[in-house]
């Protein structure tokens, strides 16, 4: 039985796309949340980049009293070591992998696909990249952290060791404290992944300077 792909919002360039960015939202948001960012990136018309913003499934979230909302995984506790539910992260990573493979099947090579994620979405992106069997163009992990970092050494492959990873965090983030983001960066870096770390004077959001840096980074990895 073929798995049904996650639903998503799609933004297409004026010409036939030859690259793709798959951008995962945070807890309680949807694919519509980040879709307006595309024109703000001001990518040149010569870059034929398709953007896909998938919607996470709705599920009860423990820390929110079991309320159902779009979530890539359950959050049972705000504790640093047990915030992300591994089973949920693995399931979402599998669903995102299917979405990536669908783009590959449509004619866009894996090496022309960037996986991006904000907060919860970034957790899924950081989980999937080291375990993905095909080399991607890059990963953006924004205002996020890592699920079960101790598993990385035994589960990671070398396929995406050289893949650029843009990691960024707000130094005033009260939702995902900056030390959690930096710990994820240190874990990726110490395991030999090509990660960079950038901080911004902001809370749990994105800012103009970050968008400018993301645009420059995308033009570098997809240009």
From TrEMBL:
Positions of the Phospholipase/carboxylesterase/thioesterase domain: 12-221
Keywords: Hydrolase
Highest taxon listed in the record's lineage: Bacteria
Keyword set includes RNA-binding: no
GO molecular function terms listed in the Swiss-Prot or TrEMBL record: hydrolase activity
Record family assignment: Belongs to the AB hydrolase superfamily. AB hydrolase 2 family.
This protein's name: Alpha/beta fold hydrolase
Species whose genome carries this gene: Alteromonas profundi
């Amino acid at each position: 039985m073929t798995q049904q792909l996650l639903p998503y919002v799609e933004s297409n360039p004026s010409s036939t796309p030859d690259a793709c960015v798959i951008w995962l939202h945070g807890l309680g948001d949807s694919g519509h949340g980040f879709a307006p960012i595309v024109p703000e990136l001001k990518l040149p018309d010569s870059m034929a980049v398709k953007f896909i913003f998938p919607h996470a499934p709705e599920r009860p979230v423990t820390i929110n009293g079991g309320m159902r909302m779009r979530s890539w995984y359950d959050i049972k506790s705000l504790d640093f070591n047990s915030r992300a539910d591994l089973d949920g992260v693995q399931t979402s990573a599998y669903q995102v992998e299917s979405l990536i493979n669908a783009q590959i099947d449509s004619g866009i090579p894996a090496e022309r696909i960037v996986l991006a994620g904000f907060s919860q979405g970034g957790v899924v992106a950081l989980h999937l990249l080291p375990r993905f069997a095909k080399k991607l163009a890059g990963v953006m992990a924004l205002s996020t952290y890592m699920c079960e970092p101790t598993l990385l050494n035994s589960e990671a492959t070398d396929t995406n060791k050289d893949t650029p990873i843009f990691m960024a965090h707000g130094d005033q983030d009260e939702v995902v404290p900056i030390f959690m983001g930096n710990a994820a960066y240190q874990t990726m870096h110490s395991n030999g992944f090509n990660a960079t770390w950038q901080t911004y004077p902001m809370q749990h959001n994105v800012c103009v300077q970050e968008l400018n840096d993301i645009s420059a980074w995308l033009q570098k990895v997809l240009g």
